[in-house]
């Protein structure tokens, strides 16, 4: 909103300093500062309100050290993240940008799914919360919206430049904006993959949208649930999400910048740079929330926050065509997801074969395994963050390592 206001003041009245709002870097700084203020200042009031409404976490006794001391800690703190993310994004981003609109819709959509789950747990006193099938239906719905928009919307294109005979020529660049289902493949020299190739020539390319929508549904569901599973100890999900969002912000800026995309020989996506503002608000919101969620937590984000974090991260990765980098970029979420799948699958297999279920991990997801081994929560979280930073560096290194 502020972008349009200051654009009007600049064009109509030549208002001093109004032109600075045209710069992504300035608006990103404004977004992160605003989100930090909202999260840190108003977060305290939201926590007090949650405590007043007696919206406390009900803890199942899993035999973990210090676990029962958390009983009654306010939950649904994801509202802090939602407020600190949505308000700055609405203020500083271009609301006509389809990528920003998708990010905003994804935030509200997944936040509502998480809210329903928390509401059932807290107010209906049902520890199971929203049934898994309804969560999946909601995630499938978002995947369809995102997939269909990215495939059919005329605003979503990549720019292909014609080769220049002389690099020093003053002749303007010749380019074509095209609709495409190309995406980025890491560590490959010609690092582009077209989803139409998944049809294997059996169907016309006009059916590619079906494949693409299915991919979007899978990625959004997997990453959203991965973030939800990761949210098990103080500060883990929020801190990990900060690292991932910073990585996406760098990728979005490079992909949406003509000079850097050409220098790095990566796909140029016009208008994708606007997502840097959204990522900045995302980071600020998570940092503001982490002020209260770091050990010992004064508030838990609940599914209102965790499902939203993963869902939004997945949508951002799809928007900048870096979804195949998710296994490295979101490696913590992936490891947590896989640990649960392995544990459950092995338990069912051994129960069927031996009549007694056996486990590979002391407890799943993975962070609980380390808790069972005697590691303190703070040490686990810090080391997971370190691994997340290493994975982020590896992800950014794929821009040149091919």
Automatic annotation (TrEMBL):
Q: Which UniProt keywords apply?
A: Cell cycle, Cell division, Cell membrane, Cell shape, Cell wall biogenesis/degradation, Magnesium, Membrane, Metal-binding, Peptidoglycan synthesis, Transferase, Transmembrane, Transmembrane helix
Which positions does UniProt annotate for Mg(2+) binding? 228, 303
Give the transmembrane ranges. 20-42, 76-93, 99-116, 136-153, 206-224, 236-255, 275-292, 299-320, 326-349, 380-399
EC number(s) stated in the UniProt entry for this protein:
2.7.8.13
Q: GO molecular function, one example?
A: phospho-N-acetylmuramoyl-pentapeptide-transferase activity
Q: Cite the annotated pathway.
A: Cell wall biogenesis; peptidoglycan biosynthesis
Task: Write down the required cofactor(s).
Answer: Mg(2+)
Where primarily located?
A: membrane
What GO cellular component is one of the record's annotations?
plasma membrane
The record's subcellular locations are: Cell membrane; Membrane
Family listed? Belongs to the glycosyltransferase 4 family. MraY subfamily.
Q: What job does the chain carry out?
A: Catalyzes the initial step of the lipid cycle reactions in the biosynthesis of the cell wall peptidoglycan: transfers peptidoglycan precursor phospho-MurNAc-pentapeptide from UDP-MurNAc-pentapeptide onto the lipid carrier undecaprenyl phosphate, yielding undecaprenyl-pyrophosphoryl-MurNAc-pentapeptide, known as lipid I.
| Family matches, as NCBIfam families | mraY (TIGR00445)
**Name of the protein in question:** Phospho-N-acetylmuramoyl-pentapeptide-transferase
What is the source species?
Answer: Fibrisoma limi BUZ 3
Report the gene name: mraY
């Amino acid at each position: 909103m502020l972008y349009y206001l200051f654009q009007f003041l600049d064009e109509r009245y030549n208002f001093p300093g109004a032109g600075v709002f045209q710069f992504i870097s300035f608006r990103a700084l404004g977004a992160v500062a605003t989100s930090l203020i909202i999260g840190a200042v108003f977060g305290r009031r939201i926590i007090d309100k949650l405590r007043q409404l007696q919206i406390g976490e009900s803890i199942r006794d899993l035999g973990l050290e210090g676990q029962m001391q958390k009983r009654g800690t306010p939950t649904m703190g994801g509202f802090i993240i939602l407020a600190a993310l949505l308000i700055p994004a609405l203020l500083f981003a271009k609301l006509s940008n389809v990528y920003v609109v998708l990010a905003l819709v994804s935030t509200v959509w997944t936040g509502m799914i998480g809210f329903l789950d928390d509401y059932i747990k807290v107010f209906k006193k049902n520890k199971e919360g929203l049934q898994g099938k309804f969560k999946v239906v909601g995630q499938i719905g978002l995947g369809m919206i995102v997939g269909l928009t990215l495939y059919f919307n005329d605003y979503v294109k990549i720019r292909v430049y014609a080769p220049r005979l002389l690099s020093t020529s003053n002749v303007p660049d010749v380019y074509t904006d095209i609709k495409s289902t190309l995406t980025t493949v890491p560590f490959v020299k010609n690092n582009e993959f077209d989803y139409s190739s998944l049809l294997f020539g059996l169907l016309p390319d006009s059916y590619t949208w079906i494949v693409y929508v299915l991919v979007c549904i899978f990625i959004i569901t997997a990453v959203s649930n991965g973030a939800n599973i990761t949210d098990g100890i103080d500060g883990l999900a929020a801190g990990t999400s900060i690292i991932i969002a910073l990585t996406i912000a760098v990728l979005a800026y490079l992909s949406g910048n003509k000079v850097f995309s050409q220098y790095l020989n990566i796909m140029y996506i016009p208008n994708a740079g606007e997502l840097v503002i959204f990522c900045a608000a995302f980071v600020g919101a998570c940092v503001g929330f982490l002020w209260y969620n770091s050990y010992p937590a004064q508030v838990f984000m609940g599914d209102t926050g965790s499902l939203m974090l993963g869902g939004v991260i997945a949508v951002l990765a799809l928007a900048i065509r870096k979804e195949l980098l998710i296994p490295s970029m979101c490696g913590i979420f992936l490891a947590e997801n896989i640990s649960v799948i392995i544990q459950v699958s092995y338990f069912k297999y051994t129960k069927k074969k031996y009549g007694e279920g056996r486990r590979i991990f002391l407890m799943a997801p993975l962070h609980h395994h380390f808790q069972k081994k005697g590691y303190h929560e703070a040490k686990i979280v810090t080391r997971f963050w370190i691994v997340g930073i290493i994975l982020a560096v590896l992800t950014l290194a794929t821009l040149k390592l091919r």
